[in-house]
């Protein structure tokens, strides 16, 4: 502890998360005449990942790939999907509640050989 000139106390905390997610803890400081409770919340994000999907199907046949979206954050997620490229289809938006995994169905429906 360091008691500075303005009556503040530094309280160093070391936090070493093992994976992305939402981490919460309570720090309880007690003295004979006082109790203080501090709520600490840390959100750890994963490094951005690039993903590539390859669709191979005979002409005029549809293939759907379920893409899992896992929400390990502290808040519900709402995504708006913007699909670029011919013959791809999927829901325009998706909601992923906290702690859940929702599948986004990406469909490829070619109308010609290419």
UniProtKB/TrEMBL annotation:
GO process annotations (BP): sperm axoneme assembly
Gene that produces this protein: Cfap47_3
Organism superkingdom: Eukaryota
Cellular-component GO terms for this entry: cilium
Name the record gives this protein: CFA47 protein
Matches recorded under PANTHER family: CILIA- AND FLAGELLA-ASSOCIATED PROTEIN 47
